[in-house]
Input
Amino acid sequence: MTPARLARIFSGRFHYAWVVLAVVFVSMLAGVSVRAAPGVMIGPLQRAFGWDISTISAAISVNIMLMGLIGPFMAGMMQSLGLKRTMIGALLVLMSGTGLSMFMTSPWQLFLTWGVLVGIGAGAGAVGFAGAVANRWFLKRTGFAAGLLFAANAAGQLIFLPVLAWLANRYGWQGVSIGTTAAIACVIPLVIWLLPESPEDIGVAAYGGHEIVPERDNYAPGGNMFAVAINALIRASRSMDFWLLCLTFGICGLSTNGLINTHLIAYCMDEGIPEFQGASILAGIGLFSLFGSMASGWLCDRYSPRVLLFWYYSLRGVSLVLIPFSPFDGASLAVFAVFYGLDWVATGPATFSLTNEVFGRRDAPVIVSWIFLAHQIGGSIAAFGAGAVRSASGSYLLAFLASGVACLAASMLVLRITPRGKLVTAAE
Output
């Protein structure tokens, strides 16, 4: 049964945009969850090969950096080759990276598979794809749709951590490679079957719209993906708002996937907390981040995303400064998981909504991909830097304090961004 036929069957009950949102959510949840695997593989790889934390962290930093660097060009490819083909191709690259890693025996192979291939493949699950789907399929409730997909992007890295940790403990790092490869293989048929290229392809208007907008009026099918990405960067770079968004979102990456996602389990082990329990704490952060991101998207449809970002960064900074001075036991970490989890992905839909306001809906998916590159640069710095701090000082204390202070600075910087007012919609 084709998507067009399903759309006719669902007509009058609910819009097919929600089916698209569900398919993309599941695909991103499975695909981006691969990003969580290196965190639980640090211990098994150390035991199997004797590699130190700084070596493994360096490979993870390559992964984080490439995920951001490839994002703008993936967003350009979505406009030139299409959403569906871009996502399928990226999932295949992702699957090849995890599959080939089963045979690695030296650090350069870790860099090639979990660093380069996984980083490139995960680029399709970055914020540009979430933004493109939200803007293309939703004229109303765009913030909520983006919030849900941002939640999948980050929460997928955390929710499955207990399963990955169990695989790592029972079957070693190879078990993690096999499990992640199988998960990606399961979602590819869903994308092939249920993901249309655009509302026009199945004869419906975008959610909240009344007219079918031709694809060529809003996007650039057949264009050069590099030209699309570079031209958007040139236009955006003339605005100070773009650089403020890059700086603040870079701090977001430094304080989330670079520090917490990569090193919290190792920090817990330093404090005598078992690896599986540390993974469960991260999974709790991921679970609550789902609610936080959806709530943030809902709020962005109603309130200023700039003000929301001020509160998100302020509260995150306070939590990072305080957690090292807490008892660092099960109770305090549970409170941290709830509080920090609600804030974990909340910055994503707010940053995207603010980018929509500043640059317009047409350019926002590509421009927010460049902004996401800054997020990944920050994450890459923290992934390597926190590991280096731990190796040099024997503690993660300085890494957490520096990250918390940076978040407090970001809360001030975001208030200097000047939205242009009325959103430029795809139909305008």
